Amino acid sequence: MSTDEIDEAVDWLGDPVDCNACAHKELLGQGRCKPLRACLFDRYARRIDRFFDWNPEIARHYLAHPYFEVRSCAAKAAEIFLLPAMLDDPEEAVRWSAARRLPDRYLLKLRNDPHREVRIRVAHRLDAVDLLPMIEDRDYYVRQVVARRISPDLLVLMIDDDDVEVRRVVAERISPQALKRVTTDSDAGVRFEAAQRLDAVQLPDLIADPDWRVRYEVARRAALTDIRPLLSDEDPIVRETAEARLGKTPDPSGKKVFERNHTHIEERI
């Protein structure tokens, strides 16, 4: 339900909003605030936000208000030179509300923010060259964002990340020169991602990989002289792919085998 659909006007302490006691009650007659629509002292953030949108000049006076939603909304409207001090606010919503309006250099301070959502947003916004200190962030999703944004040459620093999803991103983006190192990962999915990008001449080294998908990639792309051992592979898709490429099937082109196996692979992966 939208906050504008909530038919109550209470403040952040749970007390009814009293327009007659408001320090800005003159704004009501001027149409610059409205109960249940735009109100500084309503507890609903959308109404507070709309109040400051209508009255931005008042925001600077509420950057230290005890209710964090008021501070957060005020930070969206107050003069920008007042915002650096708010990067130390105890509430993450306030810190980010201020940070999103400040130049990127101020975001450097938030790379170690205690709240993961702030660090995630920082990782999305900072220049890639400024993300290096975040490759060891304690949150796996922050590291995923970093892995998607830093230079591929720097991903060698994340090859041994504890999280498998981070390592899959590494396998997808790491520079070709370092890709071979990813093929020894403990997770089969990571090895498969790497195998799909690996140069064909390097694929024979993976011919004994325990995962059928990796061996299939070998059978599909490695030189014909290197895939003969796969003619006796335990997996039918790997075996048939090798047979088709080596002309060991009734269909010399192997087209039917490749089409059938492609369908089977999509079903199994």
Concise synopsis of the structure shown:
The chain is mainly α.
Layout of secondary structure:
Blueprint: H1 26-29, H2 45-54, H3 68-77, H4 92-99, H5 116-125, H6 140-149, H7 164-173, H8 179-182, H9 188-197, H10 212-221, H11 236-245, H12 255-268
What does it look like?
Among the domains are: 1-102, Leucine-rich Repeat Variant, CATH 1.25.10; 212-269, no CATH class. It is 41% helix and 0% strand. The protein is built from 12 helices and no strands. It is elongated and about 90 Å long.
Low-confidence stretches: none
Q: Rg, please?
A: 29 Å
Per CATH, the superfamily of the domain at 1-102 is: Leucine-rich Repeat Variant
Structural class of the helices, strands and pairings?
mainly alpha
Topology, number of strands:
0
Helices, by number, come to 12
Name the CATH architecture of the domain at 1-102.
Alpha Horseshoe
Q: What sort of overall outline do the alpha carbons produce when their principal axes are compared?
A: elongated
If you consult CATH, what is the topology of the domain at 1-102? Answer: Leucine-rich Repeat Variant
SSE order, as H and E?
HHHHHHHHHHHH
Annotation keywords:
269 residues, mainly alpha, Leucine-rich Repeat Variant, 12 helices
